Amino acid sequence: MAKYLMLKHYRGAPASVNDAPMDQWTPEEISAHVQYMNDFAARLEATGEYVDSQALAFEGQWVRYDGEGRPPVTDGPFAETKDLIAGFMVIDVDSHERAVELAGELSAAPGAGGKPIHEWLELRPFLTAPTTVTE
Amino acid sequence: MTSHIIDEALLRSLTPSVLTILVHRGADFAAAEDAVQDALVEALRVRGMGSSPGSSGGGDTVSRSSGGGDPVRDPKGWLVTVAWRRFLDANRADTARRRREDLVEEEPPPGPASAVDDTLQLYFLCAHPSLTPSSAVALTLRAVGGLTTRQIAQAYLVPEATMAQRISRAKRTVSGVQFDQPGDVATVLRVLYLVFNEGYSGDVDLVAEAIRLTRQLAATIDHPEVAGLLALMLLHHARRAARTAPDGSLVPLAEQDRGRWDTASIAEGVEILQAALARDRLGEFQAQAAIAALHADAPTVEETDWVQIVEWYDELLRLTDSPVVRLNRAVAVGEADGPRAGLAALAALEEAPLGSSSRGAGPGSSGGEHPMPRHAAVAAYLHERDGDLAKAARLYAEAARKAPNLAERDHLTRQAARLNTRRTR
After folding, report:
1. Residue A96, Cβ neighbours under 10 Å: how many?
2. Is A63 an interface residue toward B (CB < 8 Å)?
3. What are the domain boundaries of chain A?
4. What per-residue confidence (pLDDT) applies to B203?
5. What is the ipTM of this complex?
6. Which residues of B touch A23 (CB under 8 A)?
7. Rounded to the nearest 5 degrees, what angle is found at the Cα of B107, between the Cα atoms of B105 and B111?
8. Crossing angle (nearest 10°) for helices A96-107 and A27-47
9. Which of B37, B159, B340, B391 stands the most exposed, by the fewest C-beta atoms within 10 Å?
10. Whole-structure pTM value
């Protein structure tokens, strides 16, 4: 089994094929999209491949240490140009092929006109714990 | 399958009294609480073996593994016995033996305080001001609510080990607090309100649990704000079924099918509220409950008494001048006196100092936009009613970006979409 992170972006990903922003869809199209996402997660739970998923707020900031006895430095909200993650899903699957297949399915979620968005998702394998057998 | 030898709800309702019995026998709170939790988990484990009342297995299993008593006929006695033994086992260190033997001698406990007072003390301790809100919530749910650590962890979407740590740290924090020290009802109410308002998932219905715990608190102390909070919970809970569509999307108050509101819950809430208001000691929760009652009282949204709702918001502002209340008041003003008046109330809110009174630790504002998450949503609604659909659509989209949860975000995005598609067709 291997864990993968599927990342969805608010911005920073290459443009989707069906790129209309969500507030330009019809309310029914939005409902269909939400339903597709829920069904997708439910299906992965049923197959035993779902681990977690979370949506992230549109806003955030950079934070860093600024030395002993000083409060952390913050910078933000994020600049308009920043790559911005919208949310993630963690899956635990048997193969890289399966992870690609599932990311492809998630990317097919319907958007404007009820057509798939063809959204680019970032697929990142987790680094694992050391294996017992090493040679 | 449905017949259990022990009723989980009954067991949980016994938790506070069993716990305080152990404390009166001389166990310190932290150890007593652990022992009661162990006994509860044991009871649930045995129940989980699937014994039915007719079979000969279950009760005997419990008796054999955990010591005397009949858990079905005398669940409280059984819990006390098991919890006490667990407590003694945990204290079996040599250095503790002498003390333990003394404690055993003291059985049964001398009980100067009544069970009712004890339960109240338990609420105070679990909501002690030295605890952070999340710790107080966890400790209350376990020590007063009788939930297991696993159930609480599931409800708040954190690992069980994390929740276990949170609870043991909380107990360490209150370890120096005298059990009979007088507490502050307001801190208890804040904790119960948090449980009611921020329950997420898992097997346990935290909303129902919050109502149960508030009802139990109302039975132990005669206090108008406790009644006010209970009424508030009942009145909001009554609308629960109507608040989400079958697909999980939010249904705003104005569009809810009022036939699906729970009339019994509304009637109970109103009755409790009226009795509390008659005491003439108004507080924040009573005022909020009054607003909820006025909504509940309207057979249709058009028949809502918005003028009176605005008056209650004015009361609420006098009691607690928060920007959230001002924002909600602007909505009510918009309904009572028209959208222009609502927008004027909103504009007045911009000028009011927000500063330290603005709530929450959410992400900061972005340039030029209002820091309150729902401000844009209210502005969008009022502009739509005022006929400025383009501005309303833009504000709904902004509100969606700032929404604190997915259901609200989807709802607000749909509102923007509704106006955008209407304008372009």
Report:
1. 12
2. no
3. 2-125
4. 75
5. 0.84
6. 393, 396-397, 400, 413, 416-417, 420
7. 130
8. 160
9. B159
10. 0.84
